Backbone:
């Protein structure tokens, strides 16, 4: 572990930067439907705008992963600050589809750049406790979503416009930009340990790493697509659809806060198996329930997706350390890229479902609401297959890691 007197300050500033990332997610989820009404956008267009953040993210996180060892984590985070600032201001003054598209892209690039620098930063300064500290760091993602959705909920009730809600993101943005500009940074763990660049790139071809990339597709879609679209999909099923997201992410905050004992008791792979099972159960309830059972589904789903993202990163950092910052950032980029593609596809699928469920010749508001009420849960039901597949895949991974550990223990005993 690289000790630095500024380690705690670096961690706090990293959490603030991730808070901006998650606020953009939570606030956008809360105002997405309103943007569609105000600017005359359909679900496919809203899906494209939402997806823009998710493919701006992988673009930035992958490029950032390749350059972070060269330009340093501090410069990368200053770039993130500038993109956040530009994206937030442009969103506030958006006038239609293209300005929303570009501003969301800028915020997505900023979000990816934050992850590109902060994931290796946290893994470096807490190299003896990576998975736990990555969970503690990533609790600010659901934490920010909780804050963001509550901002939307209460400011809506007070009649305060979405522009002010978006503008509140400027406060933590300016704070993290100021903090990072004053702090000193260590080199990345890979550089400090003397692993060559060539060795790092060769490690990316490890079959286990390639499998984890594929599994990251599924964990990211399960968590982030559902969270981003829950208000749109269930708005006609529940009067408090945005509060479902608040409850789900609130559970995630608590779970990641207590990640240490959970991860140490179950192992990262054990945590991933249980997470996949709970995600499938929660998603099933969200797609097949109404009334108070929707909140039960949100709680179980939150428990399921709680550990997905940081534990996937922690697993790679602990078991494939030679992949370095590039490995961590390729994981994050793969996840967000999968979400972006899935979101665009599902936006069009949702529009088709709504159209198919409309009575012939009836375009009344009641008919549209009924069609949307039926279509939303069907999108969730289609997504349910993903955590079911993940359950099987992570169970196989669990047995593989146990057998590998037993084999290594036997070799050590014989040596």
Residues:
């Amino acid at each position: 572990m690289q000790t630095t007197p500024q380690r705690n300050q670096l961690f706090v500033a990293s959490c603030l930067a991730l808070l901006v990332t998650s606020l953009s997610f939570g606030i956008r989820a809360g105002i997405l439907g309103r943007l569609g009404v105000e600017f005359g956008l359909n679900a496919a267009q809203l899906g494209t705008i939402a997806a823009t953040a998710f493919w701006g993210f992988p673009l930035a996180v992958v490029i950032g992963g390749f350059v972070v060892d060269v330009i340093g984590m501090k410069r990368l985070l200053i770039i993130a600050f500038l993109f956040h600032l530009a994206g937030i201001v442009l969103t506030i003054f958006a006038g239609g589809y293209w300005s929303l598209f570009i501003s969301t892209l800028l915020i997505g690039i900023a979000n990816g750049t934050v992850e590109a620098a902060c994931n290796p930063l946290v893994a470096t300064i807490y190299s003896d406790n990576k998975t736990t500290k990555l969970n503690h760091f990533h609790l600010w993602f659901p934490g920010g979503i909780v804050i963001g959705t509550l901002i939307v909920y209460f400011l809506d009730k007070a009649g305060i416009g979405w522009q002010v809600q978006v503008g509140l993101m400027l406060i933590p943005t300016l704070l993290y930009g100021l903090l990072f500009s004053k702090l000193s940074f260590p080199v990345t763990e890979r550089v400090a340990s003397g692993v060559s660049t060539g060795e790092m790139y060769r490690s990316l071809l490890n079959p286990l790493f390639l499998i984890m990339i594929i599994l990251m597709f599924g964990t990211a879609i399960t968590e982030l697509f559902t969270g981003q679209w829950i208000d749109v999909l269930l708005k006609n099923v529940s009067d408090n659809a945005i509060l479902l997201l608040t409850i789900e992410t609130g559970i995630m905050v608590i779970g990641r806060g207590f990640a240490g004992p959970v991860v140490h008791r179950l192992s990262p792979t054990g945590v991933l198996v249980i997470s996949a099972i709970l995600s499938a159960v929660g998603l099933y309830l969200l797609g097949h329930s109404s009334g108070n059972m929707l909140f039960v589904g949100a709680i179980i789903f939150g428990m399921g997706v709680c550990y997905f993202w940081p534990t996937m990163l922690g697993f790679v950092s602990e078991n494939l350390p030679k992949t370095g910052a590039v490995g961590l950032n390729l994981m994050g980029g793969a996840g967000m890229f999968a979400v972006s593609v899935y979101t665009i596809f599902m936006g069009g699928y949702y529009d088709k479902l709504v159209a198919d469920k409309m009575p012939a010749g009836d375009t009344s508001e009641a008919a549209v609401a009924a069609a949307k009420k039926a279509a939303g849960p069907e999108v969730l039901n289609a997504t349910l297959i993903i955590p079911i597949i993940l359950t099987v895949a992570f169970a196989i991974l669990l047995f593989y890691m146990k057998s590998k550990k037993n084999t290594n223990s036997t070799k050590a005993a014989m040596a």
